Amino acid sequence: MALVTLGWLNIFAAIYDETANQTIWDLSLSSGRQLMFIAAAAVIVVVIIIIDMRFYETFAYLFYGLILALLFLVPFIGKEVGGNKAWIGIGSFGVQPSEFAKFITALAVAKYIGSVGFKMDNLRNQAILFALIGVPIILIQLQKDTGTALVFTSFVLVFYREGMSPFLLIVGVCAATIFVLTLLVPNPLYLHAAIALLLILLISFGKKKFKRIAILVIGALLISGVIVSVDYVVNNVLKPHQQNRVKVLVNPDIDPLGVGWNVTQSKIAIGSGGFIGKGFLKGTQTKFDFVPKQSTDFIFCTIGEEFGWIGSLVVIGLFVTLLLRVIFLSERQKSRFARAYGYSVACILFFHFAINIGMTVGLFPVIGIPLPFFSYGGSSLWGFTILLFVLLKLDAHRSQVLQRI
Amino acid sequence: MNEGRREIVQLVFVLVGLIFLIKLFFIQVLDNKYAELADSNAILRQVEYPFRGLITDRHGKLIVYNTPEYDLTAIVKDIKNFDSTKFCQVFEISREDLRLKFKEMKKRKEYSPVKPTLFIDQLSNLDFARVQDRLDEFSGFYIEARTTRAYTTTALANALGYVSELSKDQLERDEKSFYRQGDYIGQSGIESYYEEQLRGKRGVRFKLRNVKGVEKGSFKNGAYDTLSIPGQNLVSGIDLDLQQYGELLMKGKSGSIAAIEPSSGEVLALVSGPSYDPNLLTGSRYSSNFRLISNDTLKPLFNRPLMAQYRPGSIFKIAQAMTALQEKVITPETRIRCDKSLIGCHPGHDNQDLRGAIANSCNPYFLGVLRKMLNKGVSSSPFEDTRIGLAEWNKHINSFGFGSNLGIDLPNEKGGLIPTPAYYDRAYDNRPWKFSNIYSIAIGEGENLVVPIQMANFAAIIANRGYYYTPHLIKGMGKDGKPLPKYTERHYTTIDSSYFRIAVDAMQQVVESGTGQYRARLADIIVCGKTGTVQNDPLPAHSVFIAFAPRDNPKIAISVYVEDAGQGARAAASIASLMIEKYLLGKTKRQFIEDYVLAGKFLDQKN
Questions:
Q1: Out of B108, B168, B304, B431, which residue is the most buried by the measure of CB atoms under 10 Å away?
Q2: Stretch(es) of chain B classified as CATH 3.40.710.10
Q3: Which of A306, A282, A302, A284 is nearest to A293 (CA)?
Q4: CATH-assigned architecture of domain B240-287+303-599
Q5: CB of B22 within 8 Å of any CB in chain A?
Q6: Has the ipTM of the complex gone over 0.85?
């Protein structure tokens, strides 16, 4: 089965290679580098397969500590790229520790979940888990790399699989809805009024028990509080370019030449691809820089423009297949560590996939995270390679786990 | 305990994938808006205007050419940090003008704040050179170059015509949809007649551009591009020196000179007086100048050689003589007494033969000739007899190119009038008419009307002894250098070639010993001519002269018509002979004649 997965990856790699080459086909430097990154990724794969599987589990916390230290240092020694200070320069190349932090955090989280005596119901255990993902989030946010920081929230889905109550997820979804509503409705007062109205209706038509009324009132107050804080965060905490990204999500036509440029141009590029696309290297929008960051965050535009809906179907199909395959692999793991790790891999990949494509087609705000295996960039490629192949390594030795226990 | 959660996670993955595909299907397949936006983003349609063909004279001297002109356009949205003081200073306009320019621009139909809109049109070469270097100080302003017509001389204005933006009417009439709004089109003269040859073919290029508007090569390797094809160059038969000399001679006079090379029908000179400077009707000055020129009471836009219909006067007697000889109602030896009872005549002759009658322009003689022509006694009714005779007469006269358009390669040509039986029926309201009613046509007066180019063509017919090529200004078009096919066709008159020898003799006599001897005779060249003095009461008569020279193997046939200038032997004969001298010898040997013409006091009998 490992071989089959490798086959998929080869397909991925092939597409990836083409895409990278065509997008930046006139910049031989970038495509050349990307080829080098791929070669390096292959080396990493070999190394991962050689290293004993127990190595990952054993040293998970150590790595975790190391990466936290590195993340902590980045703001001081890093160099600034595109408004984010997330890079450590090594020669002419930059390395993003945050990319590797995903993998290491996944290991740590999995190890903790897989540790003897861990119970998801245990509040203390839960708190530690959230701390495990919370610390890197804070550190990465300090680098002002919101996109990558948000990726860590995808671990919540892993916790859910491992037994956490869905309550948190539901609250999360509700919060997101309220968040979007807050942005959509020009004046938060309307929202507060609507909540108050809803509250009054619920109280007057339901059973008039004190406890119920109290819960409703508290709930309403909480929601109002969220609205106020969202409003505050959007307008006062986020940096202007982030504010704009969020606002454009709600109304991309606010200013098609200004703030909404990225999304508008991205949609034009994808939309102009039609059913079968313009053909390899024939894209006018991506080739002539109408879409910004087309070789990294907006790589999907190239696929959409040059290969059309069919191309998008293939890519999305491959991603979903990969995700389901990863879930399948995780589920057949015999150790809880491996299974939790597998889910972490799936969730991280999913988050990247969903947010990245979502933003290029205008469904999510523009958050600068790469599309796994497609976007140009060594750190990201290596990060995903490590994530995936450690899982494969674990999978290949799943029978040994039994022996060991 | 957590069974089912795996499925939920998987469901979420698949669902997100599906949502993306559906959304993609909407924007990629169902909505064409994005494809169009992409095209307008990246594809720039550039029209390449062809160069309009050049026009040269018969010796290859340039007459009409193209010169670059520069428009200043503005993209309002791109105008930033506009320094109006500096702008006014660089473009040398006042603040008030600047405000007006902005106002005008915003009123334009095609105005859009994101597209280039005309701001100042037609900067001159000089302005452009000065402004060019400083343009980058004014963001949002751009120079657009195009070409406009220019003329090497002020001559030939009416024949050349002018070029201007095509009107709404013209755009609607353009069935082949060749033109677009804002295109330029030949509006009169050669520019109009040869519009199809001169205009060339517009080219279109589809260019790809990147986000900054920088061109990135052609779209689909130029598969949809068309090259602009420059218009054909035209070689005219005009002798520019002769033309300019003719305009000099006609200065301050009303009338026309038309000179033709008899052996080809090529027009050597076509002077219309008064004229205008063709450079006035180009570029930015067009609209204001056009109003001035078209309102001028002297009608400088009226192309007299083609459009002014005059009574031909005595020159018509030669046509009468030829017709009568052909109909055998007279012989060259026929003598008719100069009986002044019906019609006046000049003194100094009494009973002459045909040559003498032509040389002395004897009116009663030709009255008699016409009587013989029209009343041959084929019918006992004098009315019917005249009708039959007139129809025959028409046939011959029309074969000289009179009475209908010759078909010169210029628009608005008039055909003149040769009265037919039907014409007199109408004129007399179907009451009977006979010779005694219509005899004044005998001497080129009465109802006859001809235009000067027909008179010159008539001279060419005599020079050729009986045939002509339709007069034309353009002797060669494009690469193969041939005129339009219709101009290589020989047209014969209905008169036998042998009779023309008599006309030639008579016209030689006119110049050597007749009415033309004082001002048309040249020392080295045998000139054959005929004077005409066309009554124009109460104003002085029009002065007319037709001629060709040399007598054998003639190189030039000419007609001169000077309005209100008295006897044909004075103004017209002088001008015609000067033109012949100029063309055949390069310059006149008779300075006093030139001075006489330039002074223009033809009515002063002391001269």
A1: B304
A2: 240-287+303-599
A3: A302
A4: 3-Layer(aba) Sandwich (3.40)
A5: no
A6: no
